[in-house]
Amino acid sequence: MANWKKIMGGVVAAVVTPGAIIVAYASTRPSDFHIERVQRIEASSATVYAQIEDMHAWAAWSPWEKLDPTMKRSFSGAPKGVGAIYEWEGNKDVGQGRMTITEAVPGARIVQKLEFIKPFEATNKTMFAIAPDGDKAVKLTWSMDGHNNLGMKVFGLFMNMDKQVGGDFEKGLASIKAIAEKSQAATPAAAK
Fold first, then answer.
1. Which distant-in-sequence residues (6+ apart) come within 8 Å of 53 by Cβ?
2. Which residues pair with 126 in a beta bridge?
3. CA atoms within 13 A of residue 150's CA, in its CB half-sphere
4. Are residues 39 and 26 both part of a single domain?
5. Sign of dihedral through CA atoms 155, 125, 62, 109?
6. 113 and 127 in contact (C-beta within 8 Å)?
7. Structural domain harbouring 81
8. CA separation for the pair 52, 178 (Å, rounded)
9. Is 191 part of any domain?
10. pLDDT per residue over 36-81, tens digit each?
11. Is the dihedral of CA 17, 18, 23, 25 positive or negative?
């Protein structure tokens, strides 16, 4: 009987120990995160801002819009700018959530409260900042800041969130660039 207890104790230790080690290590990871990507766009700040301020325009450039063609979308609050709300519910690739514009500085900045509901709950801050970059271009920075709970810290050990989300930001910024530069070429007298 004593050997049986030793064997079971060894089995439990072999199973529990790796999990405990992973959780212990994950708990040492940073609590806050910042993801950021930048794109130079040869268009006016007003042209670029128009793509971000009106969340109805996001369907043309958002990398997540293409992941689920049957995704349900709804818009409420203000038509654009502060108070505009965009909610979505889709497949496992897009989940469910809500974005609310909390700050809008024309031609310069859009700040949003980003709430994920499914497959996990989280609230993050996203920001689009537009800055001049020479005479005929702007630099558009897309960033996201948030807090990692223990579950997200463990998840982060197996998936590089900066690479994953940053890659999506890069795709979205490239699409905004293409749309804004085409729009700018069509209206060369657009205000800077």
1. 80, 81, 84, 101, 104, 106, 110
2. 112, 144
3. 6
4. no
5. negative
6. no
7. 32-186
8. 14
9. no
10. 999 999 999 999 999 999 999 999 999 988 888 899 999 999 999 9
11. positive
Residues 137 and 181 in one domain: yes
What are the residues facing 128 on neighbouring strands? 110, 142
Of 41, 59, 106, 98, the C-alpha closest to 80 is 106
* Residues 6+ away with beta carbon under 8 Å from 11: none
User: In this structure, how many other beta carbons lie within 10 angstroms of the beta carbon of residue 130?
Assistant: 23
Count CB-CB contacts under 10 A for residue 167.
13
CB atoms within 10 A of CB 52: 23
Whole-structure pTM value = 0.78
- Check if the beta carbon of residue 101 is closer than 8 Å to that of residue 84: yes
Q: Among 135, 140, 109, 134, which Cα is nearest to 39's?
A: 140
Here the tokens at position 105 are 């500085």
78 and 116 part of one domain: yes
